[in-house]
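> @MW can you paste both from yesterday?
MW: sure, first one:
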Amino acid sequence: MWNVFANPDIPNPQSALLDILCPTPSATTDCSPATLLPQTIGLFKTPGLRDLDDSAPYLHNGSLNNFQAVLAQYQKVSALQRAQALRNGDTRLTGMNLSTVDIAALSAFLHSLAEDYQ
């Protein structure tokens, strides 16, 4: 939430976020963005991996439909980052070096976390 709240580049959700952060504004409640912004750190809980199999499509924009494609994307962008050919890439990508064998193993592991509701 910290990256979104009070961000002028993302105007649409601001009123809803303000309602969440300051549900009962009053004369004694400071609902200014400067006061509320520090409270937004850590408010978004990252989802776990269990049953990830049933949550396709993946990535923030839903552009990839399976684990192999997601892992191949990480393989590609980490290689670009190591070659310093990725604009604004996270430096942690430099230490990631996935092989084809790694992708198969990681994909199998992620599939193994699927819940069996039968």
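MW: second:
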Amino acid sequence: MRSRDPFASMWAEACELLDRAERLHGHFFELGRPEAGRPTWQAPVDVFESGDELSIVVALPGVTPEALEVLLDGPTLVVTGQRPFPARSPGTHIHRLEIPWGRFVRRIALPGDGLQLAEQSLAHGCLTLVLRKGGTPR
């Protein structure tokens, strides 16, 4: 039962929101399964479907196009690559390091078969992939 005290109610709601934000932050960059004995991390993704297209956005801050590999393996899309450790000058002290670096692997289960990679772009730290259903790539 909720308290009738508006301050207590607001405090409880604020604590609940902070807990939720902490959980989401913890899931933003998850550790992946070690690949070939090396630790990996997984980037978060958004997947959108409309008409005959599937759009996937992968958050990859600091990753260059040359460091990426995208593979369509049946009903699974595999995005792999490397994010280098941020450059720093001698004597620099790290106060916080939250964005993972090193090798990453992200496997995304796709709805259905017959998808073909039609577009790929990397801008503003996000890899955007467009897959088309049953058609040919543009």
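> thanks! The chain has two domains: 1-28, 32-133.
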